[in-house]
Amino acid sequence: MEYKLDFRTYSDALKKNKLLGLKCNDCGTFTCPPKMTCQECAGTDLEIVELSGNGEIVTFTQTFVAPQGRECEAPYTIVMVELDEGPWTMGNLIDIAPDKINMELIGRKVRLGHKVFPGDTYSDGEAARPLFSFQI
């Protein structure tokens, strides 16, 4: 079985501020980031779709120790966002200093951006990752 949407295609789309996901033609569920099967019914009849990139923060964590090779980026905040289309996805949060983070972050509306991260010791080179900022 092959990936319908591979990571390189997903990353290349993010570099253009496009968030790609998969829509299951069996049950209608949207999946993001890409997986080999539907996260709801495990179906394989999937089509690539562009998602809005808009959503709401459902939880967060703060990172004070970055991966080896990216130590200068810490501290930073990672948010789990429920996208308007339904799937949950993670990304870094900008617009607020890590020392200002509190539980009021939950429920805040955010929109997608991206950042190209350099490769670290354990990756296969640079890749784009979701980045979220507050909706105004």
Question: How would you summarize the topology of this molecule?
Answer:
Layout lengths: L6 H8 L4 E6 L5 E2 L14 E6 L2 E10 L12 E8 L4 E6 L15 E9 L9 E8 L2
Parallel strand pairs: 6-8
Antiparallel strand pairs: 1-2, 1-3, 4-5, 4-7, 5-6, 7-8
Describe what you observe in this structure.
The mean pLDDT is 89. Strand 5 and strand 6 form a beta hairpin. The chain has a 5-stranded mixed beta barrel. Strands 2-1-3 form a 3-stranded antiparallel sheet. It has one domain (7-134). The protein has one helix spanning 7-14; strands at 19-24, 30-31, 46-51, 54-63, 76-83, 88-93, 109-117, 127-134. With 136 residues, the chain is mostly beta strands.
